[in-house]
Known about the structure:
2 domains, 7-stranded mixed sheet, 9-stranded mixed sheet, SH3 type barrels, 2 helices, elongated, single chain, Lipocalin
Amino acid sequence: MTVAALSLFAASGCRSQVNADQVPVGTAVQVTRHDGGLVEGTLAARDEKTLTVKGGRTTRTVPRGEIADLKVVTPGRAIELPPVAKFREFTVPEGTPLKLTFETSVSSETSRAGDEIEARLSEAVRVDDVEVMPAGSVLRGMVTAAESAGKVKGRASLAIHFDSIEVRQERYPISSDFAAEAAGTKKMDAVKIGVPAAAGAIIGGIIGGGKGAATGAAIGGGGGAAVVLMTEGKPVMLGVGTSATVLMTKSIDVRVPLK
């Protein structure tokens, strides 16, 4: 948005609207986009086309053409939200663990690649102390591989990819993987699937509860997938209610409505 356009907003009744080029870098600001997105924080940079605002752990770049309202925030003084403001955006970073419960039963013996899978968050995901993805948010994905014990020399395996999550009736694309394999000798299995030996690498996989839960050790796998060693020689079976933890392999921006 040009300086002239910003001045026009002020003249048309938005008296708190300010000229972006007159706000010093480092000033606390409140920027509202035309789509209702509210961006609050410190003005970190600006150029002819954009403003960059840093707030919490997130830095956002707002094109000037998308700015509906811009205000300077005075510490300790309440500031009125413009009518256009509808939500704040929070970035859920790559590597965030998602604790979930399976809503679909899957098995290395009966499932096939392409079968749809559904799960729900068992714990809310918070960013900057804000509940961004509530418990109960629905994850959807599909089986990417399923091998019964008889096809892999006595070692059953199952792999799942989650590609979306529904939060407050709005769907977002995600990328998160889960894999489980029947155990043989655990030391050899760890070598074959590239599992770190350090105890600190134990992040992911089934963590208990529900029919069909794993009885083996949960260990972190390579490539962002959670890998679980199941009971030796048994099929990999994950019943409804099975708990698991997977990691997000890409960050996403989630809208949180203003209250």
